[in-house]
């Protein structure tokens, strides 16, 4: 994930402020470089590769066991180093696992950013994890009582479309605008509204391995 410039951050912040001006709901945007480090998959694939090493020497050569064992160790070490390269490391992780970890991280952020503490339970989280190419919208229970979950799929589709084209800032702003319109329809501004949560983009570093 390329760092967000001050201009990008300011544009997204203005989008949040503009959208929230038309609703009593709260919108929080979180961007993560990755939702997990997936270090365990490095060891797993290096070990599997090393376990396969003895088969050709045993079948095709008369090498001593000691040589084969040293070759296994060398392969395991080299694979462990090679698989640390982020593009390869993330490629080794099944898509279902990456999406599960990203969803878990999104839920964690929903709680960490206090979206569940708004007065009317009308908080919405827009979460993107770039390494996994994953986006999700999580709404609090006050919203789910009035808004069908399928409604957010259009927001995700619009956002991911822009992310794929490399127009991430416009994608975030468009997603924020769409969320704002959905919230405004069901949760118009009240007389005593106050901005309960921050209106800026929250950027997370790559999540460490579990």
Give a description of the structure.
By secondary structure, this protein is an alpha/beta fold. The protein is built from 9 helices and 4 strands, in the order αβαααααββαααβ. It has 2 domains: 6-37 and 94-204, Roll (Diaminopimelate Epimerase, Chain A, domain 1), CATH 3.10.310.50; 39-91, no CATH class. The protein has helices spanning 6-20, 39-52, 55-60, 65-82, 86-91, 95-112, 141-144, 151-165, 168-186; strands at 26-32, 123-129, 134-139, 202-204. It has a 4-stranded mixed β-sheet with strand order 3-2-1-4, sandwiched between helices. Strand 2 and strand 3 form a beta hairpin. Helix 1 runs parallel beside helix 9, helix 2 runs antiparallel to helix 4 (65-82) and helix 8 packs antiparallel against helix 9. The radius of gyration is 23 Å and the shape is elongated. The mean pLDDT is 91.
Write the layout of secondary structure elements.
Blueprint: H1 6-20, E1 26-32, H2 39-52, H3 55-60, H4 65-82, H5 86-91, H6 95-112, E2 123-129, E3 134-139, H7 141-144, H8 151-165, H9 168-186, E4 202-204
Parallel strand pairs: 1-2, 1-4
Antiparallel strand pairs: 2-3
Helix pairs in contact: 1-9, 2-4, 8-9
Using brief descriptors, characterize the structure shown.
55% helix, Diaminopimelate Epimerase, Chain A, domain 1, four-stranded mixed beta sheet, elongated, 9 helices, alpha/beta, 4 strands, 210 residues
